[in-house]
C-alpha cells in the first residue's frame, strides 16, 4: 500500500507540472504599453507679468507651461507688435520661455507677443496653435482684432509668412515711409489675425518684407492693399461646441457665447509690381562654336562683343541668335581662328539697372573658357573612309497626331537660308499622295526651332519628307534624307466642354484650362456668357478665369502708386472629367465661392502643413507585440 500511494503521489505531481506549462504557453504574454500617448499640446499655466497686465515697465516676459516645451525658429515664427527694430532675445528652457525686448518700450502701448504655431511639447511635438501673450505700458489693454487671408493674385495660392500691417496714418505714403503700427504674419494656410488693436480707422497692407523694416521701400517686394479703410469692432455671437466620447460617439452639443471681432474675412491679393532690375548673370561656352550671354530678363538691344585677346580674320566673325524671348543670346562663331581658341576675352556693353531701377550702359570684361573633352575618333566605313557626320535635324511628327498639334523641326546648329520649299508635305487622298500647302514659321523662343502647321481634319493621313543635302548648316553639314508618315486622330478620340459663366457681364475675360500641374494648356475668350473647348484629350481638367480689363489677353499685375489692383483671377472648385466622344456642358458661378476656397487642393502647391499629430491606437500595440512574440522563441509548443 505504501508503494502504491507513493506512485499516485508522483503521478499527480507530474500532471500538475504539465498543466502549469500548458497554462504558461497559452497565457497572453503582452508587453506593458505604458498607457495612452500624450496627444495634447502644452498648457500655459502662468507668467511674469500676468497676461494682459497694465502699466508694465519691464522688458522681460517669462511664460510657464505644464510640460517641457520647445520653440521652432523663434526669429521667424514669433511676431512682436509694435514691430521691433532690434530683434528680441527669445529662449526656451525646460518648461519656460523667456522673451527679452531690446527696443525702448513706447508709452501707453499694448504689446503683443504672437507665437503663432511655434510652441510644441518636447517629446510628441504636439503644437500649441495660435498662442499669443499681451501686456500694456499704459492703463488700458487694447483688445480689438481683425483677420483674413492672403492669396497670390495670379494663381490664388495661399501665401505663408507674409507680414500684415496696419497704419492709423491714412496717407498713401505711410506704407512706404513708416513702419507698421500693428503687425502679424500669415500662417501656412495664408490666414492671419492682427491682435490688440486700438479703436480707430486703419489701412491694411500685406508685405513680403525682404529687408524686415516693416515698410514698402524695395521695388521687388510683393505687396497687397485694401482699397477701403477698416474700422475694427466686435459683436456678441454664439457657436455650437461638440464634445466627443470617442472618435465616433458624441457626448454633448452645447451653445457657447463668444466675442466675434470684425472684420474677420479680409481678402488680400498679393502681387509684385512690374519691375525687375536688369543685369547679366553669367557667360557660357558650351562648345567651341558658340558662347552664350545670359540675362535675368529679355534685353531689347543685343550687345556687340569687342575682342580683347584675339583678332578675327573676318569682319562678321559671329552670328547672334536670341533665345528664350531675348533672355539668352547665343553668339555662333563663324571665324575658325576664333572658335579654335580655348579662351576668349571680350568687352561687353549692355543695359543694366542702376540703384533707382533706371537702365544705364554697363561695360564688363568677360572671359569664356572652353572645357575640351577627349578627342572623339570619327567612325570609319568598311573601306576606311571617315563616316559622314550629318546635320542634326529632329522632326517631331508622331504617328498619331492630335488635331491641334503642329509638326516641329529643330536643329543643333544654325541652318543657312532655310526655306519652306525644303520640306514636302503630302496628304493621302483616295490612296494617292497629293502635295498640300502648309504654314512654316520660326519658333519665337528658340531660334533653332521651326513649325509646320496646317488646318488638319479628323482622320487625315499625311507624310512629310526632306531630300538629302537640301539643308546646309553654318559649319558645313548637310542633312540626311528624312521621311515620316502620321495620321490625325478621329473625331471620336476627343471630348468637348462648354462652360456657362455666371457673375461677369461687363468685363472682358478669358478662361484657361489647366492640367494637374496648374499649367495652362488651352485658352478661350468668354463670348456670349460662355467658353467652348473643342477636341480635348480624355483627361481631368481645371479652369481659371482672368478678368482681362484691358483686353490684352494676359494677366496684368497691380501698381501701388496708381492704386491699381491686379486683374481678378477665379478658379473653378470643380474638376472637369472629359471622356472620348462626350460633350460636357457645365455652369460656373465665379463669385459663388470665396477666393480662399476656390482653388482645388489637388493643384494647390502651398498645401497646409499637418500641425496635429495623428491619433495612435496604443491599445493594439501590446497585442501586436504579443503576436510577434508567440511566433518566435517566447512560447511553448506541444
TrEMBL record:
PROSITE patterns listed in its UniProt record: PROKAR_LIPOPROTEIN (PS51257)
Assigned keywords, A-Z: Signal
Bias-annotated ranges (Basic and acidic residues): 601-624
Residues in the signal sequence: 1-30
InterPro entries per record: Carb-bd-like_fold, SbsA_Ig
Region ranges (Disordered): 601-638
Protein name: Ig-like domain-containing protein
